[in-house]
Amino acid sequence: MKGLERIRRLATRAAIRSDQRRNGHGPTSGADLAAWARRHLDGTQLVIVSNREPYSHVPGPDGIRSVWNAGGLTVALDALARAMGGTWVAHGNGAADREVVDEHDHVPCPPGRPRYTLRRVWLSPEDHDHYYAGFSNSALWPLCHIAYVRPRFERADWESYRDVNRRFAEAALEEVGSGPALVFLQDYHLALAAKYIKRARPDLRVVLFWHIPWPNAEIFRRLPWREELMEGLLANDLIGFHIHLHAINFLQTVADTLETRVDREHRAVEREGHRTWVRHFPMGVDVAEIATMAEMPETRAAEERLRSELKLGDARLGLGVDRLDYTKGLPERLRGLERFYEKYPDWVGRFRFLQVGVPSRIELEEYRTVRTQTHEAIQRINQRFGTPDAPLIHLIEDSLDFRDLLPLYRAADLCAVTSLHDGMNLVAKEYIAASPDGQGALVLSPFTGAARELERAWIVSPYDREDLADVFLAALTEAPEARRARMADLAEVTRRRTIFDWAIDVLESARSLAELPPTRDTQRRRISRRSAAKPESRKARST
Ligand code: F6P
């Protein structure tokens, strides 16, 4: 069976590659995905569901304007939704979001060039406190990331999480109507949604992609409501992770938590007659679109403006683009930079650093702390080494539109992605895709999913400031030819698995795995269930 599945996936990839060669074009594109969907999902509606919306509407000086939310998940899935059409259900949290929707809470997206429908779900301030800031980001987020922040478990948060998941599920069901559909849930905010969807419509195919790490089973045991959460997750037909290790951790967690059959060989879980497949699919970015946007005259002009505003002159520029989150390792990165200037004083003034810090979850103390630590470290470094008119480290603390990131990527001679733990980290891939001259350098933490693929990046532990300082130096002083070869290699890896390859793999797996016959073990179990009235063992079994 495993062989059959692999053959199908390889055949799909081979067909796409051969089309690409025939048409003389490079990476898998939105058009390839659309063609695949026409061939294989004919008549099946796609409904994406996520907490964060791809576009928000906010009041501006000239009326309401839209903002393209720059998060990795939203930008990547926007490319998928544009290619396939359909509906995206998400929380409407822009200040002017309610003013632009129709009576069904719909707004066409992308604004001005509509390709799909955004259905907004409204959450109250209490929902925000308990479901979003509470259970999602004070319990699940620290539980799943190894950043040594203790999770907080509050029953009221859990109850709100359950309630909001049900409402997202109801909104998805309304969008589906009565026809066939594939509901594609995103991330840790929606662990229970599949249960409510399947309860109403068991015929729908439901897939969840978990964008953050999955911890080992011992850590997960801390969650008081783990059984209900796992039951919710196992209502999905397919669960995807970025890397193999997280899929394996998940299977072990299932085995430790619930009475169920965990089939490690086929990476599937069987429970109460339902099977959930568990797979890993490393996510990519829309390489062609990012490269095109990076070459636009307005992007080049914005890059020039940035260079002159920063008074860069001949100095080299380092870049960090992160939410102000304790998982992103900002204080650690800054300690590495400080050590760099201490150890290599020649570089003071010759290497400057631009940090984009996207304000995030500021209602939580841990996030305010990381913000304060970031401010303090930048101030200290600038006082120690910079001059008042040319600070060495510059912080842009703002939620940027994705288009505003491109001039920054272009300008950067080095991009530092030094998270303490990350499911994937798409900034690493966006930077590569937006660096057409191949002159950059990527400094990457081994604790990101991206490090599994981008092996030729400068891999360095964020916990070791000596190493960080030395890697910054090595990356800046590498001979131009070697640097170009390294970047070309990274670009090739990024091109080989775009967001559209990811989408085809996930959707193809959802389609073909559902068609597979039961495993031999399952067949055996069904026969024995029919023939023997023996009670099931209480203990989870693993095969
Ligand atoms: O890393 C997980 C993730 O969901 C990303 O995919 C996304 O960029 C980020 O968290 C969004 O966080 P929030 O929606 O809380 O701003």
Note the topology.
Blueprint: H1 2-23, H2 30-40, E1 45-49, E2 55-60, E3 63-68, H3 72-84, E4 87-91, H4 97-100, E5 106-109, E6 116-121, H5 125-144, H6 155-176, E7 181-186, H7 193-200, E8 205-209, H8 217-220, H9 226-233, E9 238-241, H10 244-257, E10 261-263, E11 268-271, E12 274-280, H11 287-295, H12 297-309, E13 316-323, H13 330-343, E14 351-358, H14 365-385, E15 393-396, H15 402-411, E16 414-417, H16 426-433, E17 442-444, E18 458-459, H17 465-477, H18 480-496, H19 499-515, H20 520-531, E19 541-542
Parallel strand pairs: 1-4, 1-7, 4-6, 7-8, 8-9, 9-12, 10-19, 13-14, 13-16, 14-15, 16-17, 17-18
Antiparallel strand pairs: 2-3, 5-6, 10-11, 11-12
Helix pairs in contact: 1-19, 2-3, 2-19, 5-6, 6-7, 12-15, 13-14, 13-17
Bound molecules: 6-O-phosphono-beta-D-fructofuranose.
Tell me what the structure shows:
The chain is an alpha/beta fold. It is 48% helix and 17% strand. It has 20 helices and 19 strands. The chain has helices at 2-23, 30-40, 72-84, 97-100, 125-144, 155-176, 193-200, 217-220, 226-233, 244-257, 287-295, 297-309, 330-343, 365-385, 402-411, 426-433, 465-477, 480-496, 499-515, 520-531; strands spanning 45-49, 55-60, 63-68, 87-91, 106-109, 116-121, 181-186, 205-209, 238-241, 261-263, 268-271, 274-280, 316-323, 351-358, 393-396, 414-417, 442-444, 458-459, 541-542. The strands form three sheets. An eleven-stranded mixed beta sheet has the order 5-6-4-1-7-8-9-12-11-10-19, sandwiched between helices. It is globular. The model is unreliable at 522-543 (pLDDT under 50). The structure holds 6-O-phosphono-beta-D-fructofuranose (F6P). Residues 51-52, 71-73, 187, 211-212, 360-361, 423 line the site of 6-O-phosphono-beta-D-fructofuranose. The site of 6-O-phosphono-beta-D-fructofuranose (F6P) has 11 residues, from α3.
